Amino acid sequence: MDSIVAVHGLAEDSRKTWTRQEGGVLWLKDLLPRHIHNARVLTFDYNPDPFLFTGPGFMDKVQGHATTLVADLEAERSLMNASQRPLIFVCHGLGGIIVKSALIHSASRTSHQTCHLNSIYVSTFAILFFGTPHDRIDVGRWLALHSSSLAATDPGAAAVTPHNSAELPITVHALDVITNQFAPLMKKIHLYLFWEGLETRLADRVDFLVEQTSAAPPTYDTQRCGISDSDHSGMVKFHNGDSAYRTVISALKKYCQAAPEVIAYRWKEAVESLARMRKSEASELTGLFLDIPDKTPLFVEIKDTVEPALQNEHFDPPCAVSPAFIGQDEIIGALQTAFEPEQNVLLMKQQKRFVLYGIGGSGKTQLSAKYAQQNRKFYWAVFTIDASSHQSARESFCKIGRKGGLEATEDSGKHFLSQATKPWLLIIDNADSPDLHFERLIVPSERGHILVTTRNPSLRRQGNVGNVELKGLKERDAFQLLMRVADIKQPCDTPTERAGNEIIKTLGYLALAVVQAGNTIYNKLCNLTEYLGFFHLFLEKRREKKVQCSTNDTDDTAARRAENDDIFTAFDFSFQRIAIQNTVPSQDAIEILNIVGFYHFDSIPVDIFERGLNLEREQLRQSSVASLRAKFANAFVCRLRPPRSLPRFLRQNANGMHPLCIREALRELYASSLITYGKDEKTFSLHPLVHAWAKDRIPSNERSLWAGIAFNTLMASIEISPKDTGESNSTFGRSLIPHLNSCLEACPTEFKEFHSLKDCVGKYRRFTLLLQPTLMFTLREMIQSAAKCGALYAQTGDFLKSAYHLSLVKEALVMLVGLDDARTMAAMLGLAGVLWGLGRLREAIDLQEQVVKSRRRVLGSVHRGTLQAMVSLGKSFWLNGQYCEALELQQQTAEEMRVHLGEEDDDTLDALDHLGVTLGSWHRFTESKDIHRNVLTIRTRALKSSDLKVLETKSNLAMALLDLKQLREARYLMEDVYNNRKVQMGKEHPYTLLALCYLSKIYIEQGELHKAEKTLVEGIAAGKRSLGENHLGVLVGCGELARTYARQGRLEEAERLSLETISKVKISRGDEHPDYAYGMWKLGELWEKKGEQVKAINAYRVALTATERRLTKEHPLHKLISDRIRFLTENSLADGFSGSDVANGSAKADIAELKINPLQPTQTW
C-alpha cells in the first residue's frame, strides 16, 4: 500500500486547491480511488497568505513548514505502523518547494536522536510538481492574485491589505540554494513536472503565475507535460474526462506499482547503513578503531542514490607544473597514501598535514603542484599560501577571503576554509624562515589537507600524517631531465651518457640546476661535454668575487653563498646567453632582472612595466603637442632636472618606447628558464633561488642604485589621480603591495633631503630652493612617490603605513608651498581620512579645521571646495561625539549650499543627509525623517534605487523611522539596503554589516528576539574577522546583542557583555564620548531591571558626567538621565536606604573599577 501526500501552494488551502468548482469534484477523494485501490491519501495544510512569504524571511518560513511536514508525516505514519510505506508527493506551486526542503531536512536526520525522521526521505519514491517554481518565485504575482480574489468577494478588503504589493521586495532568487541541496536526492526520486498552459487574471493584468522555464527547467532530465487548457489554479482541478487527468493518474498508477519493491530495497540498505554508523559511534567510545570519525556525518547517501561528482571550484596551485617535470612517483604515492584524497571529507577524523622539506632547488614546490594537479578532481578547492614572509602569508589568506565572497582579511580567509564542508587542499609554500610562526598558518578546522614545503627541517614535526626529505632527483630521473631539456635524442652513446652523469652529479641532482644546465646546452652556449669546463670557470669567478665581498658579509650571508655556489654558478652560465647577445631586448632583460631582484619573487605583474611605459609615453606625447611657450619651458626644466633613476626603456623618447619591448625582454628571461609565467601570462614569477641569485649577482656597490631604480619603476606605473577608478585599478593596486613592501625594505622612503628644508627657513625659503634646482626636483619626485605609497596603502587598508607616507607629504608641502596651497590642503584631507581609520580622531579633526580655515581664506566661504571641506568636518564632529559643533556647522553649511549650489545639487544632498543624522542624535526625529525623505525623493529621481548613495539615505531614513516607532516601513527600507549592499559590496563588507546591525535593532523592537540574536551573533563574528574586535561597528553590535539578551530575560549574560563592551568603548573612544554615555545609560537600565538600584544610580551618574563633558546639559539625554536619577534616589530613600548608601554604595566601586580595568573576554564573545 502506498501513501500519496498532497501539498497545496500559496493563496489556497488543502481542500479547495484540488476541488473543481463545477460539480465540486475533489479528485483526490472522488476520482483517484477508482483507479488506484490501495493508496492512502493525506493532505498537509499551512498558512497560505502570500504576504507572509515576502522579504528576506522567505527561506526561514519555507524551512519552518518543511520541518513541520516531516514531523507531522513521520508521526502519522508511526502511529499507523506504516513508517516504511512508499511515499508519493503531489505538489502545487509553493508546496513543491516545501516538499523539496522537507526531503533535504529528512535526508540529513541520521543521528541517534533524529534518525526516525530520515524515514520520510528513504520512503519517497516520486514527486509530481504542478506549477512549482524551481529557480525563482515572484510572490508579487500571488499577492496580486490574492488581492483580486479578496476584491471579488469583499471590495473593501483589498484596500486594507498589509502592504501594497508594488512596495515589497517580492521576487525571491534564493531557490538555487534549495535546488543545489536537492540535486543529490533527485537522482533516484522520480519527478514529473507540469506547467500551466493559460495565463491567470490578476488584479491589474493577465500573466503566468509560474513560467514554463521555471516550472520545468530544461536542465531537469525527467518527465514533463503542459496542461494546456488550464491556468495555474485550474491545472490541479480535474474531472473524469480530462485528458490531463488521464496523464496524471497514469503516472501515479505506474509509480504505485513500482514503488514497493524499490522502497523495500532502500530500507534494507538504509538500516544497514545506519547500523554501521551506530557501530562507528560505539567503536569511537571504546577506542578500537582509530580511523572512525568523531562526528556522525551530516548526510548519508542511500546505496541506490548516485552521488554527484565533486566539482573543483577553486584551483590556485603554487605554480604551473613544468613540462619537464619528471620522477618523484614514490613521493607522490606517499602523499596519496597519507592524504587519501578520494576519502569522503565527512569521514575525516582530523586535519591532515604533510611536510616536504629539503634544500632549495630540490623541486618541493613543483612536486606540490604536481600532486595538486593529479588529484584536483578530489578537491573542491586548492589554495596556496606564500609563506616566504608574514606579509605575503597574510596577503594569501586575504586573497582566499575575497574568493569566498568575504572581506579581504587574514581571518576571513581562514574562516572561509574552516567553514567549508567539501574537501580542500592548502599548500603552504616556502615556509623557510626560522622566525615564521607556523601555528598562525594553520586553519582551525578538523577538515582539509595541508601540504607544507620548507627548507627548515625542524618543521617536519608539523606533519601529523608524514614528512619526506627531498635531496634531489634519482640519478636516472636527473639524467632523463637533462637530456629532455637539452633536446638530446636517446638512447645516447657512452661518452654522452658519461658526460651527462658527471653534470648531474656535480649539480647535486637538483632539478632546478639540471634544468639550467639543459637550457644552456640547448641554447648552444656549449655542448654537453664542454659544459663542466665552462661551469668550473664560472664557479672560480664566483668564488673570487665572494672573497672580494667576504669582508662585508655576515656569517649567515657567507654560509648561504657557499651553500648555493653550485646552483648559482649554473644560473651564471645560463645567463651568459642573454649577456653576450648585446641587443636591445637582452639589455632590457638584464635591467628587468636587476629590478625584480628587489620585488617579491611571486606574481610580479607585467603591468608594472607596461603601465609605466604607457604613462611615460603619454606624458611625452602631451609635451610634443604643447604650445611653443610650454615647449620652451619644458626644455628649460629638462636642463635643470637631474637624470632620473629609471631603466632604459622608461628613459627613451616617445618613438623609442616600443609597446612590445617589455614582452621581448621577458621572452629572453623565459627562454633561459629564469622566469615562469602565470596561467594568464599577466604575471611572472622567479623561483626563490633564482630571485636570490638575481639580487646576489648585482655588485654590492650598485645595489642601492638598483633598489632605487626598482622603486622608481614601481612608482612610474601608478597614477596619483587615475582615470580608471574601477575594480581593475583596485586589483592592480593590491597586486603591487608585496612588491612595494620588498622595495621599501631595500630602499626606505626616509627622504633625507627633507632635512635640507629645515635649513631653508623664513621668507627666503623658496628663493633658496630656486638656487638648488636639483634638490627641488628631487624633493618633488619624492613627494609624489610618498603620496602614491600613502594612497596605495590606504586603498588596501594598511592605515599605519599610509599615515607615515602621507605625513611626510603633508610636512614637506607645508614647508615648501605653505598651508594655503591646494596640494597641501588635499594632502591634509587625505591624511585626515587615514587618521580616522587609525582612531586618531582629534588629529584628523585638527587637520580638517585647518583646511576649512585655509579654503575660506583662499577660496571664499561659499566656494564649493570650502563647503565640501565643511561637510567633511561636520561629519567628523558628529563621529567624534561633538554633537553641538556638528549641528551648528552642518546647519550653516546646508543653508549656504541650498542658496549657492541649489537644493538638488549632489553636494547639497550629502550635507542634508549628514544634517538629518545629527538631528536624530539630538532626538529631533521628525525633522530628521523629513530631511532624509526629501533627500531620498530627489536622489531616486536621478539615480537607481540600488545606487550606494540612495542606499545610504534609505538607511538613515530607516533609523529615523525606527526612532519614531514606524517599524514596518523601517524594516522594509533596511532589508532593501542590506540585500543590495550584500550583492554590491559583499556580505562581510563593513557597510553591509552595519546594515545588518541596524536591521537587528528593528527586529528587537518588533519582538523578534531570536532572529535578532542570530543576526547579531553572525554579524559580530564577521565583523571581528573583517574589522577587529575593538572596532566601533563590532562594539555597537555587541551592545545590541546585550539588549537582546536583556529582553529575553538573560540578564546575567547581558550584564557580562555590557560591561565588557563599555570597557572597550571607553578605551577606544574615551569617557567623554556619547557612545560611552549611552552605554552607561543602558547599563543603568539593565541593573535597574535586575533590581540593583544602587548600582543603577551610580551607572546613571557616570553617564550624566560623560554627557556634561561633551554633549552638554542641553542634550535631551542629560534630562532623561537626571530625571531617572531623581526618581530612583527618591524611591531608594523611601525604601530605607540612606543618602550615603546611594551615593557611596558598593556599586561605586564597581564603576570605579570599570573606569580603570578592562574586563576579561567572556564566552559570550
UniProtKB/TrEMBL annotation:
<dbReference type="InterPro" id="IPR053137">
    <property type="entry name" value="NLR-like"/>
</dbReference>
<protein>
    <submittedName>
        <fullName>Uncharacterized protein</fullName>
    </submittedName>
</protein>
<dbReference type="InterPro" id="IPR027417">
    <property type="entry name" value="P-loop_NTPase"/>
</dbReference>
<dbReference type="Pfam" id="PF13424">
    <property type="entry name" value="TPR_12"/>
</dbReference>
<dbReference type="Pfam" id="PF13374">
    <property type="entry name" value="TPR_10"/>
</dbReference>
<dbReference type="GO" id="GO:0043531">
    <property type="term" value="F:ADP binding"/>
</dbReference>
<dbReference type="InterPro" id="IPR011990">
    <property type="entry name" value="TPR-like_helical_dom_sf"/>
</dbReference>
<dbReference type="InterPro" id="IPR029058">
    <property type="entry name" value="AB_hydrolase_fold"/>
</dbReference>
